[in-house]
Every structure is written in structure tokens, then in C-alpha cells.
Amino acid sequence: MLFVDTHTHIYDRDFDADRTEVVQRALDNGVGVMLLPNVDASTMEPMMETHEQFPECTRVMMGLQPEEVKGDYKQVLAVMEKELEKDIFIGVGEVGLDFYWDTTFEKEQIDAFETQLDWAKQLSLPLSIHCRNAFSFMARILEKHQDGGLHGVMHCFTGTEEEARVYLELGFHLGLGGVTTYKNCSVRDYLHNIPLDRIVLETDAPYLSPVPHRGQRNEPAFLVDTAKKIAEIYEMSVEEIAETTTNNAKTLFGI
Ligand SMILES: [Zn+2]
To answer: What would the pLDDT profile of 188-210 be if each residue is shown by its tens digit?
Structure first.
């Protein structure tokens, strides 16, 4: 059984003390590939170091996460755009919109997101998209830019069935993680209606641990707990979930 964790931050400081063990536990549990999305200028170096330490089982993306879009975002984007010339990146991420805590940089977030959508198109790379409290802006912007050249994952998707349909129609995949194992997660009520070939798995480690690890630091090995819950919902075996979601991830990210 092979799983792909399509969104994980194992380069985070939270893993400095035991990163090798964390990667080993991932491999022991069948999580053979881990996709690392960037966050901001300060995470580029630790992300690349982690990739150099585990070149076989990690792949890297480049992008500016919306909560980190500040007054200097144009300079930060210029550095990242230069970095993307290196041709080692398998995706543009994580990018998007987040109006949950703070809307101070709403305009800047939108501008940064649109710039990065253009990169994805020019480089023919898939996106890892973060969206919180911003569905209507997100749908409108994706619709405006979708000319057939955009594809990617709505990472940590937790929206309504209607929202899920909008993203599917726009050509995107849904990234499901630990939240899917929480009792109050509404996605569980309609997920069986969503074609499994549009689903990929992720942990978003160190955040959002699935049950029974809720409240602890999350890690890629825990992807298996999310896969088990999704298998229950689709009334399929964990092996079938692994096979289909891994194929989806491989096709989408070209890995
Ligand atoms: Zn993330």
C-alpha cells in the first residue's frame, strides 16, 4: 500500500528533534511520498534542507501562503519567482486567501494569489490552494483565471457540498486531511457523492491531527487514520482508497 501526503510541513521546527524518526514512521506506514508546500521567505531554507536530507521521499513546492502576505509581499514574490526557475518544484504552493483572523492585507492577498496563479499557468504546475473564510472571492478569482491551464488541490477542504461542486467544476481536486475524522465535519455527510478520482490525501502536519491523535502534533504517518475514515465513508477498503488517491496525486503533481 502506498500513500502520498500531498501537503505536509515536516521541515517545521516542531520536527527538528526527531525528523528522521518521523520520516521513518511515515515510510513504515506506507506514506512513501511527502509533498512540502512553502509558507514564506523564512521557510524556504529549512524546506530545501529537509528535501536534501530525504530526496527520495520528499518533493518541494514554491509559493507564499496568504496569512504571510504583508506590506513587503512584492519583494518576497520576486525572490520566489527567481527560485522557481530552478526547475525542482513540482507545484506552486501554498497560495490562496485567508480572511479568518485578519483582512488588513485583503487586496494584497488577492494580488499575490493572482500573480501566483499566473506562475502556475506559465510553468504548467499544479497548485496547492489554502482558502479560509474566503469562498466567494476564491471561486470568482479561479473562475476568472481558469482557461483550462489551472489545476491543483483545494488543500484541507472542509466546505459544503455546493462549494465542493464549484471547485470540481472548476477542475480542482479536494485535499482531505485530519478534519475529515472529526465528528462535526460536514464533508462526511456528502463525501460519498464526490467522485473518489477527485480526492487526494494530506496531513498538513504539524497541524490538524486526525482522531485518535487529535490535539497532538500531527505527522505524515497519521495519514493512515484519515484514509481509514474515508474508506468507511466510501464503503471501500483502505487499499482501494490508497490506490486511487495515490494515482490521483501522481497524475496531478507529475511524480
Ligand atoms: Zn499548509
So the answer is: 999 999 999 999 999 999 999 99
> How many A from CA of 194 to the centre of ligand 1?
23
Task: Please give the grid coordinates belonging to residue 117.
Answer: 496563479
Whether the Cβ atoms of residue 3 and residue 223 lie closer than 8 Å to each other: yes
| Per-domain boundaries in the chain | 3-253
The dotted CATH code for 3-253 is 3.20.20.140
> Ligand 1 centre and the CA of 92: distance in Å?
12
Q: How far is the CA of 217 from the centre of ligand 1 (A)?
A: 14
Closest to 208 in 3D by CA, of 172, 254, 176, 166: 176
Average pLDDT estimate for 7-20: 98
What pLDDT, on the 0 to 100 scale, is given for residue 121? 98
Centroid of ligand 1 to alpha carbon of 94 (angstroms): 7
Look up the pTM and report it.
Answer: 0.97
